[in-house]
Amino acid sequence: MIRWWNGIKSSWHHSFSLLWLMVIARQWVSYTEPYWLEVTTAAVLLTLTFAAVIEILVPVKMIYRLLLEAVTGVYLTYRMILHYGTYVPDPWLPGLRERLPDIMSHMTPYIWFALGALVLLLLSSWWVSSKPRILMFTGMNIAAFAALDSFTSSILWQEVAWTVFAGMGWLVTQHLRSFQLHYPRGWTQLLKYPFKIAVNVAIIFSLVIITGVNMPEVRPTLTDPYTAWQEWNGNGSGSSGSKTAGSSDNGSGTASAGSTTSGYSTDDNNLGGGFNFDYSPVMTVTADLRTYMRGETRSVYSGTGWSDDNPFTRGDLKGGVVGQPLEQNKASKVQTRELKQTVKILGGNSYPVLFGGLSISKVNSVNGADTSSSLLWRSEGSELLWESVENSRAYPREYVLTSQVPVIPIQELNKQTYEQLYGGLDIDQQYLQLPGNFPERVRELAEKVTAQGKTPYEKIALLQQYLQQSFPYTNQPDLSRRKSKDLVESFLFEIMEGYCDYYSTALVTMARSLDIPARWVKGYAPGEQAELPDNLAVQQGGAVLNNNYTITNADAHSWAEVYFGDYGWIPVEATPGFTAPLLAQSEDTAPQATAAPEEEQTRPEQVEVNKGTQEQSFHLKIWIVAAAAAVLLAWAGFLLWQRRFTLRFFLQRLRNGQPLSAVQKVEAETARWVRYARRKGMLKEEHETLRESVDRWSHERPAASGNLTALLRMFERAKYSPEVIEDKDWRSVYTEALRLRKSIKSGK
């Protein structure tokens, strides 16, 4: 046992290096978690954890450790495929020899992920053995996370923060190891004070954490390399215009106009072009359900965009009254769930509509008031318009809405034929409108893609799947390939890449070419979950949930809504990378969140995983910051206590304008203990000297007589004696005064 413990102590630096390496490895597993199966994630995590434990606690020869770690990885993977039901043993196979081929076939490819991660861990721990390599390794990981954060939809700043933390800890470990090797005597002396070492390290880490958390957000002054490369290639960014959910390029077929940025546009007649992402915040939404924030609908397709872009001339408008129900075109075969949304507009932007979920049923308040004469309601398009007049009815900064979110019976709807959905209904022809010169090959493509669909719902599902899987998303499509004047035709057959305006317009027009009513909708995607103080969070089931979402200009978005008769209008998301958060109702289950009709079931699960991860990271961040703050407060308290004598006469020094002499300090301490005696009932009369008072107090409080006499002697020595008084003398007064307090308390 002693030999084993000595072996662990001698390899302490290797153990700590593995700890920091595991912290970084955990961040990569966190990044891949939404993309991997649960069994893969569990097998990799357990294999890495047990390998680190074996490396630390089993100090045997390397070959034996490697063999033990490999066997452990195989066993853990086997246990995981059993636990998650990936492999169910065949009860008819008699022995291990017969079962082994079946087991190994089911362990693939999970075993390769686990063993591959194990190899990376061991190679990294072997190679990263010096300060330059630690810096290089940590920097490479930070750069990789930063690149993934910039060019994917993942938000990886938490992973970057943990990697920086692990790198700092690794450098501290390496520094202590170097000190041990170069100065063994000093290391032996240092080991006598392990608590002091740990405290100093904790203080440094806490300072870094608190500084990082409280640093103000500053926009970058340097252009990132990717943007600089884009600008060098002629796709530079500008400062005007808006894209996504309404764009205003002329569609002439030239290179992407890089002078526009993402945002909500009011001109949709000429869609297309390119844009740059603008992440400036637009609004915050507080609600217990994430939804697309609908703005306006469009119906008239011109070949280059949507020409009916005047919201006040598209149909019958009625005045809306705050607090009163709005007229609804309810779907008879769909239940609804009530949703309350609080919207706060950021900045000075104004819009022709108030944004809300499908479909708004009531305006609860506008700018905190229950009256407004600027609301207009169009039930046909579920549009809540705002008729602003300069200086009298400015666009509201905050409003509260109630919406009725449809709960869609997907299984039932999927079986409804065209005749069952639309037979006997007088369909508004604006939702089937196509221009006279609509390209025939677009219609033929829609028929070809949906040939296997038997019902309108299935056909829409096939169209959505085709658009999402066939055309890559980009905010800078190559318009040099455009030949056709029609936006949809050029997108489907020439440009073959684009962003939401391309996909949504293509889905609406292709659906109409199949005689399925559809309309184009624009607004904002749900945005990202924001961090809130505890007093603004929502309590649910004893846990704090954050139901506040921040929407930026980059979340401006357009999508399609398809009309399914008595089932009403259903949002359909055709843009890859976007998921419409809907409520679905199967025939035998309660309402549950789902994606658009044809989305794979893995996508909603990923959304839930990310949501839970965000909430977990939010609480973890609070605990880390609280722990860092506690360490710094304790450190500050220790410093104050350590310098208590220096700070004792700080105020007197400020009043005098110069440091107090030792005699003045004795006098000040004497005045302090005399005031304490007064509070305890030992009054000094005006006509009495201190000696006379002390004599009287000694008779009244015999237990304190000795302390009083000693304090009197120190005072008279400093006041009247020619002896030199030093700092140690006033500290003696301070110490004796503490004894006096104890004597007075014990004498009661």
From TrEMBL:
Classification via Gene3D superfamilies: 3.10.620.30
InterPro entries named among the record's database cross-references: Bact_TGase-like, Papain-like_cys_pep_sf, TgpA-like_C, Transglutaminase-like
Ranges of biased composition (kind: Low complexity): 240-264
Region described as Disordered: spans on this chain: 233-264, 588-610
Residue ranges constituting the Transglutaminase-like domain according to the UniProt record: 492-576
Pfam families in alphabetical order: DUF4129 (PF13559), Transglut_core (PF01841)
Membrane spanning stretches: 12-29, 35-54, 66-87, 107-127, 197-215, 622-641
Protein name, as recorded: Transglutaminase
